[in-house]
Amino acid sequence: MTSGEDLVLIALVPRSGRIREADRLKYALRASVLVDLALAHRITMNANRIKVLDAARTGDGRLDSALASLSANSAPTLGSWIKDTPAGFGMVNRYLSILADQGVLHLERHRGRLAAPMLATLLDPARRDAAVARINRVARGRESDDADRALAGLIHACGLDRHLYRFSPLARMRISRLRSYQEVADSAASSAAVEEAAVAQIVAQAVSDGIAQLTAELGKLLRYEYRIEHTGAIDHHGTSPSHHGGYGDSGSGHHHGH
């Protein structure tokens, strides 16, 4: 299960089959690949530039493609890499198709609406529950790992936390205040042998700082990219994307299953 798959499952409204915050989600899915590479100790962040630590193939096509792209560039910035990566609802549909191939979802295309996420029927609620449980650990202040916190950072960047914890301001606050993964580095150092502790701390800190910076910078990019696209749609159509089928913000009256 990748970060992108968990993101899509959490964004899915089981009763209606629609995807919440799809306009923002398509950007987060592009960056989720970077988060997975950082968690695998393949990349890190330094002064907002992505540095490849290990260019060897991972065995996952999506990760290998991103890693090859990053290796071909000289420490690209997060913003430049995100902008140079294809976007659109096709990204959301790609992850929906992956989950359908795994037997987690059944998909139905919109008639006459190609530029929109497909409708999804959830076949494996346990998979979605497991993804939500990862965010719950962070939102409720329970013990969580680096991957859980990275996913929570992406969830916040998409605005999905306000749907998950609509009636829990404290939970939303815990997620929004995610800033550092120092405790991950401390844990790695304490669990390593004494002679390896210093090296473990350096490596863990580099990776955890990279993930923290990735999610923080992603939040900024999401706000910037979405604002541009959203404003452009209003200028061109005279209305906002959320009035065309309810695929954007949950303020649309077309959303169900909240």
TrEMBL record:
Pfam families: GPP34 (PF05719). Gene3D superfamilies: yeast vps74-n-term truncation variant domain like. It is found in: Golgi apparatus membrane. Residues 233-258 are annotated as: Disordered. It is a peripheral membrane protein. This is GPP34 family phosphoprotein. Keywords: Golgi apparatus, Lipid-binding, Membrane. One of its GO terms (molecular function) is phosphatidylinositol-4-phosphate binding. One of its GO terms (cellular component) is endomembrane system. The keyword Membrane applies.
